[in-house]
UniProtKB/TrEMBL annotation, chain A:
Pfam families: ABC_tran. Residues 4-239 form the ABC transporter domain. This is ABC transporter ATP-binding protein. SMART domains: AAA. InterPro entries: AAA+_ATPase (IPR003593), ABC_transporter-like_ATP-bd (IPR003439), ABC_transporter-like_CS (IPR017871), ABC_transporter_ATP-bind (IPR050166), P-loop_NTPase (IPR027417). It comes from the Bacteria. Belongs to the ABC transporter superfamily. CDD domains: ABC_NrtD_SsuB_transporters (cd03293). GO terms for molecular function: ATP binding; ATP hydrolysis activity. Keywords: ATP-binding, Nucleotide-binding, Transport. It comes from Propylenella binzhouense.
Automatic annotation (TrEMBL), chain B:
The keyword Transmembrane helix applies. It is found in: Cell membrane. It comes from the Bacteria. Its main location: membrane. Residues 1-21 are annotated as: Disordered. The lineage of its organism: Bacteria, Pseudomonadati, Pseudomonadota, Alphaproteobacteria, Hyphomicrobiales. InterPro entries: MetI-like (IPR000515), MetI-like_sf (IPR035906). This is ABC transporter permease.
Length: 259, 277
């Protein structure tokens, strides 16, 4: 299982700028559901609260109001039912790719042969078994992020939370990883909550797109593209792709005019 | 992405002509250091001979005094005596300083409560306190070890503390996201991330510990290498006075090298990231 619900989540905090205290409404009563086995994409301009929402879902930050439920349980902190993929991979630089994947498993209490086998299985899943003994600085940006994905998946979470994981990569690497993520999702059936500001990426990956604007839910858009998506180049050329992309674009810009 | 990943790594394979060797060989650093030393010693020797032997000395005279003191056994017994107090104080400084720096860096409360003492104690004029320490600990081994400890511990604490503060928040969050308890985050993430800073602190402590040892030997029971320095100076035997000074400097260089060697063993990634040997 892997069902996520955000129920009326708000995040407000005071920020002191110079001598004035500003109240920042990072999130205003945001509610949405992610169904089991679905890829949901949170999209919006920077500062719209999408990363805050993801971090609250992970348990790294707390909501001022409202709550996050994963498979019916309220999130009170980090847990092995959720795996986080960081924006810049954040591999531990003193560990090899293999040891980085083992890290989360060790924290979960896995030991011995099972630990090594599991870590290697997930490195294979992301196609990096040949580079198992390299340290992060010997890996390209795309390879680092694959290790980050393997590390998060290895603990077998119900939900994978991804914070703009491909944002810092070049266009070609990004396309490769998008296809790979869809493939991994098809094989593992994981529920994924994915944060991005890239419209194309949102449409390519998502079953459901949650548009955020200035901390408020703007619109939820169901993507009609079939699964598996197959050839992504063809998907990009399809009418459905263009139409959905335009709907997100409109949702983002409508918001601009009303504010 | 893994196309030629392992091609260059197979150790026994014959060299491939189109592949550049792992690193280009230049004039080795140790050779440059040796040439620099030879030049400095040569200049000192050339001009040093013209100086009145009470006011100065020169390498060949120091070498002669060194040989004489080595053969008589005086130098080695003094060195042995000094090194014991030095090593005990220095090792205790590392053993106490690293954990203290780690917890001060990690805990806001401890930082506020203890940081001020550490910062102040780093600047403490220790020489002024030696008479007091002698009253507490006597004139023997432990007062020397204590002076060395007090001089060496603070650079270790401060460097470790600064290193902990420099650990990227995201790496801590990696630990948190896998539900690691605080002490595991400290040991598995903060400690390795801080190692380069810790090693820098340990290196800085070498110099301070050597100075502390000599101070201790001046002001407590006159003994060891510091004792030779002060006795020779009192007798205007300048060449003899320089022997322990040179020995101490060589010792410091050796210890620095040793710490560097240990660093390469325990934190090799740091050198690889910086792209230096």
């Amino acid at each position: 299982m892997g069902q996520v619900s955000l129920v009326d989540v708000s995040k407000r905090f005071a920020l002191r700028v110079e001598k004035e205290v500003h109240v920042v409404n990072a999130l205003n009563g945001v509610s949405f559901d992610v169904k089991d086995g679905e890829i949901a994409v949170l999209i919006g301009p920077s500062g719209c609260g999408k990363t805050t929402a993801l971090r609250i879902a992970m348990g790294l930050e707390t909501a001022t109001r409202g709550r996050v439920m994963v498979d019916g349980r309220t999130v009170t902190g980090c847990g092995y039912d959720r795996g986080l993929v960081f924006q810049h991979a954040e591999l531990l630089p003193w560990l090899t790719a293999f040891q980085n994947v083992m890290f989360g498993l060790e924290m979960k209490g896995m030991r011995g042969a099972e630990l090594k086998d599991t870590a290697m299985r997930y490195l294979k899943l992301v196609g990096l078994e040949q580079s198992a003994n390299r340290r992060p600085h010997q890996l390209s940006g795309g390879m680092k992020q694959r290790v980050g994905i393997a590390r998060a998946l290895a603990i077998d979470p119900a939900v994978l939370l991804m914070d703009e994981p491909f944002g810092a990569l070049d266009a070609q690497t990004r396309e490769g990883l998008q296809a790979e993520l869809l493939d991994i999702q098809a094989r593992t059936g994981k529920t994924i909550l994915f944060v991005t500001h890239d419209l194309d990426e949102a449409v390519l990956l998502a079953d459901r797109i949650i548009v955020l604007r200035a901390g408020s839910l703007q619109e939820i858009i169901e993507v009609g593209l079939p699964r598996p998506r197959g050839d992504l180049a063809a998907v990009r050329g399809s009418a459905e792709f263009a139409e959905t992309r335009y709907r997100i674009w409109k949702a983002l810009h409508q918001a601009e005019t009303t504010h | 992405m893994t196309d030629n990943a392992t091609a260059g790594r197979s150790a026994g394979a014959p060299p491939v002509p189109d592949v550049e060797p792992p690193k280009a060989r230049q004039v080795p650093g140790w050779l440059i250091t040796l040439l620099s030393l030879a030049l400095a010693i040569g200049i000192w020797q050339y001009f040093g001979r013209d100086v009145n032997p009470v006011f100065g000395s020169y390498p060949s005279a120091i070498a002669a005094a060194f040989w004489e003191m080595l053969v008589s056994g005086e130098l080695l017994s003094a060195l042995f005596e000094s090194l014991q107090a030095f090593l005990v104080g220095y090792v205790l400084a590392i053993v106490a300083g690293v954990p203290l720096g780690l917890v001060i860096g990690r805990s806001r409360v401890l930082e506020a409560a203890l940081g001020v003492y550490v910062t102040a104690a780093y600047a403490m004029p220790l020489v002024a306190l030696v008479p007091l320490l002698v009253l507490w600990l006597g004139l023997g081994f432990w007062v020397k070890a204590c002076v060395v400890f007090l001089m060496a511990v603070f650079p270790v604490v401060i460097n470790t503390w600064l290193g902990v503060r420099a650990v990227p928040k995201a790496l801590i969050e990696v630990g948190k996201s896998f539900v690691a308890p605080n002490h595991v985050i400290l040991r598995r993430i903060v400690l390795p991330a801080t190692l380069p800073y810790i090693m820098a602190g340990i290196k800085l402590a070498v110099g301070r510990a050597v100075v502390a040892m000599v101070i201790a030997e001046f002001f407590t029971a006159i003994s060891g290498l510091g004792g030779i320095i002060i006795n020779s100076a009192n007798n205007f035997e300048t060449a003899r006075m320089f022997v322990p000074i040179v020995v101490l400097m060589v010792l410091a260089i050796g210890l620095n090298w040793l710490v560097g060697w240990v660093e390469r063993r325990v934190a090799p990634w740091q050198f690889e990231i910086a792209g230096r040997e």
